[in-house]
Design the sequence.
């Protein structure tokens, strides 16, 4: 990708990138100070379009629920299908019940679901165990 770019140009790009990151950090610090000052006087913070964020900055990990352990989705789906009995359940109902995106469930049934013994498709996007 960068095989045709001279090393001097790459060094210049690196310096410019470092300068840019430093300036963005300063802008963020100023933005935080403004929010603090506004908060002291009860002024609600504005959603400014000029807000700058640095993606992938070092020291900042993804924050969220984390990753589920292996096989957790399968256990949830099988338990829900067992509870639904012979009438079965649709993917939409499962998605709402398990709080999982329906697209993930379609993929799961198309792949992993084929290997689950006793799992049967009984209608369009409708499955049951047994």
Sequence:
């Amino acid at each position: 990708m960068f095989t045709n770019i001279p090393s001097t140009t790459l060094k210049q790009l690196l310096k410019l990138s470092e300068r840019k990151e430093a300036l963005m950090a300063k802008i963020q610090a100023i933005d935080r100070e403004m929010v603090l000052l506004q908060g002291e006087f009860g002024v609600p913070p504005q959603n400014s379009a000029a807000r700058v964020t640095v993606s992938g900055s070092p020291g900042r990990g993804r924050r969220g629920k984390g990753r589920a352990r292996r096989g957790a989705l399968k256990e949830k789906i099988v338990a829900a299908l067992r509870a639904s009995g012979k009438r079965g359940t649709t993917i939409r109902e499962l998605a709402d019940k398990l709080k999982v995106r329906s697209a993930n469930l379609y993929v799961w049934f198309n792949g992993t679901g084929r290997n689950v013994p006793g799992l049967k498709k009984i209608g369009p996007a409708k499955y049951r165990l047994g």
In short: The chain has two domains: 1-56, 72-129. The mean pLDDT is 84. Residues 7-40 form the longest helix (34 residues).
